[in-house]
Amino acid sequence: MATKILSFATKALRRREALAIRLASHSAAVLSRPAQLTELGNGIRVATEDMGGATAAIDVCIESGIEIMGRLVSVPDFSNIENARNRVFREMAATDADNEAVVMNGLHAMAFQNTSLALPVIGRSESLSQLTQEDCQNYVNTHFKGPRIVVAVAGDVHHDDAVKSVDKSFSKITSLYDKSEIPILPRTRYTGSDIRIRDDAMPLAHIVLAVEGAPRDSNDAIALNLASELFGSWDRSHGGGGDTSSYLGICSAVDNTTHGFRSFNISYADTGLFGAYFVVERMKQEDVLWHTTYEWKRYCMEITDNELNRGKNSLVTKIMRNNETPTAVANNTSAEVLTFGRRVPLGEWRDRVLGLKAARMRDICTEHIWDRCPVVSCIGPIEQFEDYEVVRGKFSWVRY
């Protein structure tokens, strides 16, 4: 059995409040029961834009798992805030040591300037230092309300039993904003820009290049997911070498263009990011930029139904694999209920993907990629990586 509780987070999150849910997951109300957490398998996890937590348990522990999730949101105990603060500080240190996480945080900071999406998922150290119990409680009072919470349960569980457990454990959750104002949801603003941290002592450059994507509830998101599958991923550990369907993967295997890369399409409530992350040597960065923009512009002008079929098969397989476990099903169900107001059947996802035609794919890629302002985040020996004006120009150059 897997239980997922997801609270739709407002875009008005400010620095200290954004960390309250993490402190709640480490609070005494939850961590005072280590035996039960061990029984439940993987304990509490916290998501990003939509604040949430998940538990996994065998069928005899269903009620205990739901009870712990209920305590997390209804009666969180922030009295042990110092220990929780130290745990989050250690998570921050681990994140700062991960170059991919660093450039992805920089990407969001530049793409969504002065919005809550610009903040790191783990938060900022100066904000955490000033966090008080009152801040945490205000966050709970503002965000953990009935209409903003979804509890999804998947696996070997009876529906009626789960409903009774949820009614009991979440009985203190109300829909009234008696102690705080109803949070507003301002629209997120995208800004094409770049951030560069040059460090010639590093052996490799870590680069992220992206454009604004589509929201979760947009039909364009499926096309951009398909484009991401076509662009693909590759690294030197792949046993196939140059025998890959990815254009940049072939270039990397034959000409050592990259040490590795992965494409991504991240969708949020009202915006998104479509792009790719690269690990590159210092003298190969110009080639990577050329090959990447070449391929993306080709999606806008030359993509065919034949080529699209390969990407469709890959994307449908990925969707199916993302629903293999009860935890994944609960996670996807809760996210879909918040986004669409219902659980989207796998057959419907499959039909949406297979129904996409090449002409429509070209139109969507043209809307989101062609002649659009990109956002760049990079760290390492990046002297060869071209200026932003040059990068911007490559998104509309006809002689691609």
From TrEMBL:
The UniProt record lists the keyword NAD: no
Every Peptidase M16 C-terminal domain range: 131-315
InterPro entries the UniProt entry points to: Metalloenz_LuxS/M16, MPP/UQCRC_Complex, Peptidase_M16_C
Name under which the protein is recorded: Peptidase M16 C-terminal domain-containing protein
Record GO biological process: protein processing involved in protein targeting to mitochondrion
Top-rank taxon, per record: Eukaryota
Keyword terms: Hydrolase, Metal-binding, Metalloprotease, Mitochondrion, Protease, Zinc
Pfam families assigned: Peptidase_M16_C
Coiled-coil spans in chain: none
Source species of the chain: Medioppia subpectinata
Subcellular location: Mitochondrion
